[in-house]
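Cross-posting from the chemistry board since nobody answered there.

I work mostly on the small-molecule side, so proteins are not my area. We synthesized zinc ion and want a rough idea of how it might sit in this target. Sequence and SMILES are below. Is it possible to get a predicted 3D structure of the two together?
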Amino acid sequence: MTENPFLSPSDLPYQLPPFAAVANEHYLPAFEQGMAEQLEAVDAIANDAEAPTFANTVVALERSGLGTLKRVALVFFNKNSSDTDDDLNAIESEISPKLAAHADKILLNPALFARIEAVWEQRGQLGLDEQDERLLERYRTEFVRGGAALDADGKARLSAINTELAELASKFNQQILSDINDAAVHVTDRAELDGLGEDQIGAAASAAKERGIEGWLITQSNFSRHPLLEDLKDRGLRERLYKATIGRGAGNAETLLRMVRLRAEKAQLLGFEHFAAYIAADQTAGNAGIIAERLAGLAEASVRNARREAAELQEVIDADGGGFELAAWDWSFYAKQVRQAKFGFDAEALKPYLELDRVLVDGVFHAAEKEFGLTFEERKDLEGYHPEARVWEVFDSGEPLGLFVGDFFTRDSKKGGAWMNPLVVQSELTGDKPVVVNNLNIVKPSEGQPALVTVDNVTTLFHEFGHALHGLLSACRYPKTSMTSTPRDFVEYPSQVNEMWEDWPEVTANYMRHYETGEAAPAELIAQWKAAGKFGEGFASTEYLGAALLDQAWHRLTPDEVPDGGDDPFAVVEAFERKALEDAGIYMPEIAPRYRSGYFAHISIGYAAGYYSYIWSEILDADTVEWFKEQGGLTRENGDHFRATLLSKGGSIDPMESYRRFRGRDAVIDPLLERRGLR
Ligand SMILES: [Zn+2]
């Protein structure tokens, strides 16, 4: 074996991991060594003869996890999400339960917990500043929530549950990816593709060719609403595509039921009624009752709006002489027609003005320059983990700030959706500057064609870059509380705020330029696009809330209430899902939840009982957008205030406190209700 690149810090700029030197055989030994190193350090802390202090206990614990283990974990989990293979999947299956057991060895170490408690007891007399205090509070909370106060039997059971949950989560996610690949729809008659643009047809032909089959292949993304449903004129193909998309999940039914039961048991072991209550207790929401109440209130208005939209769609169908009732696979197609008829908006006409690099450089990066003084230089000399992962150096008023890696195209080896990961964590303790990666699933153009993206892709680019900014602008002392390490129902807020620049006139004028001529998009087209964006809030809110309420429903069960899978676990899961949506008043046959249970990746990982976070964060987002508008919009002064009070703080102080410092008061919900038409 060549020398393992994870065993020492990278000597590349910003400690960018040396991807070219990494082979699959390096991961497992590095994980094993990293865990051993940390346990040795933790034992030394727990058995220290000196009396416990903040430095020799809390800071020492913080340092214990920063070596080999951190380096390999950040690289591995990014790679396994964005460019996996059978070997990596096997490594994930092996290492996930081991990492869970490793975490438990630390959290359930009684001598270590006793020292943390001792420091906690003295916290008022230690002269800690707010970042120190936050770190101490996070560790103490993590230990208590991790079962440190349980008796020996309770600890043993909890540890067994955590290990099994880790196994189940990797199984669940690997199944989702293989289902996405299996559910691709094969088309052999070109006429069926009527309505698609040449670029989309070319992309489908390339996808077929890549798998060595004739004709065209419509690949899946993970959402219930396939993006091509809005273009396909052939109603039969629309139905086939829709059913393939939402019919996934049978292979995950048993795993899901088991995960839900184990989580319910874990919550009760730790003194909570159910898992939703356990999760909410450590979020800004505070308790599951408040979440349920708020979601229920929004659901009613959303469905009312969606029904009104459905009636408008049916009118178009009838006017066309369609003679059929609106079905789920018709919704996107006719919504597009309504946008065109009502607002004159033609998405195809906008497309040539949405070239990926222009959107990114002249839109996303441009807004960050105006707001924060950041500039970007592509570093073709620095290698990513895949040929399509490009690296930019980021400068802050000319000073080196960090690296941004962008990996935009979809491929069979990439998980669905879009996300941001850190590759190097910013910290004053270590002196490390941030390196972050954005992953998207933009359909790759066929060879030689420009990468023209959709309006949804544009939103996602701004959104994910908002997470990247939260990472890049972080100026925190401790890795544990830096960058995006905030409660989940807060973390989507900065990314959502960044979406506001997508249609900000100055930004739009800068990036919406014709990919061939460089000509600006006509003002009328832009105005139509903005107006048309207001149609469809009912659908968007309903599909989102469907998923959020479904996630809550699964996790509000006590262990006894979790249904038994019997002979047909998929039928059991589907029946539960239907009833949960009906009970929540959000069920509409024409609108599937954004994710159905069997392909709801969020609930296998960190967002279990936390999918409500998006709308929770959006309350802060909408309130913040109001502030920017009141203060004159996209200016350095506004950006610097947002950065100083909020973005740079990461999770190093209480997030609601940072919000108050930014806004001068608590957030109010009115701007959100206004935006989504939910009054
Ligand atoms: Zn996000």
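Reply from a structural biologist on the board:
Welcome over. Reading the output above for you: The first strand starts at residue 185 and ends at 187. The chain has five domains: 5-149, 183-248, 251-345+536-611, 351-485+493-522, 615-675. Happy to explain the token format if needed.
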